[in-house]
Design a protein that fits this description.
By secondary structure, this protein is α/β, with parallel strands linked by helices. It contains seven helices and six strands.
């Protein structure tokens, strides 16, 4: 299945924060977006993508490791935040949302924890990530993001949430 943000990012988005545990997947996603935009012509606005495949933690976000991009490029808002880091995805998102708002959020969902159960791997600096589940469940994501964000799409592996300010446009 295609990445759920590909079309949105290609045509509509101008700024994105993309975090992935795999440099190959991240590079493929960015190249696909840039190639698709080239195919559509020069009428599209410039896109700014901050992609990180190095280990990102809530602590790194809180310390300000990505602040230069946030302060200089996005001024508090991004079109898309996508997190697929195969660890404590929801904890990283919570830290990011203290610094920036997003119109669209894409998260990996933990499919082994079905609704209504809530699960999130919490961040511990000493966690070797060798055992246990990773990420966070659909129910946890909904509880964490409501009422500011609403679930738009759920696949077995990904969730897409939209900011409540976009709901009127989506309901038309």
């Amino acid at each position: 299945m295609d990445d759920p943000i590909s079309q949105w990012m290609t045509v509509y988005a101008r700024t994105a924060l993309l975090f992935d545990s795999s440099p190959e997947r991240l590079g493929f996603a960015i190249n696909k977006i840039l190639h698709s935009r080239t195919q559509l012509g020069n009428d599209l606005p410039e896109v700014r993508i901050y992609g990180a495949a190095e280990p990102i933690t809530p602590l790194r976000v809180e310390r300000g490791d990505i602040d230069p991009f946030l302060l200089e490029e996005v001024h508090g808002w991004v079109d898309i935040i996508k997190i697929d880091i195969d660890s404590f995805d929801c904890a990283v998102l919570q830290a990011l949302l203290q610094k920036v708002d997003a119109f669209v959020i894409v998260l990996e969902a933990q499919p082994l924890v079905p609704p209504p159960y809530k699960f999130a791997r919490t961040f511990q600096e000493t966690d070797p990530m060798e055992q246990g589940l990773i990420g966070c469940s659909l129910s946890y994501q909904i509880r964490m993001l409501h009422p500011t964000y609403h679930l738009l799409l759920y696949t077995e592996h990904d969730t897409v949430f939209v900011h409540s300010s976009l709901l009127a446009y989506l309901e038309e």
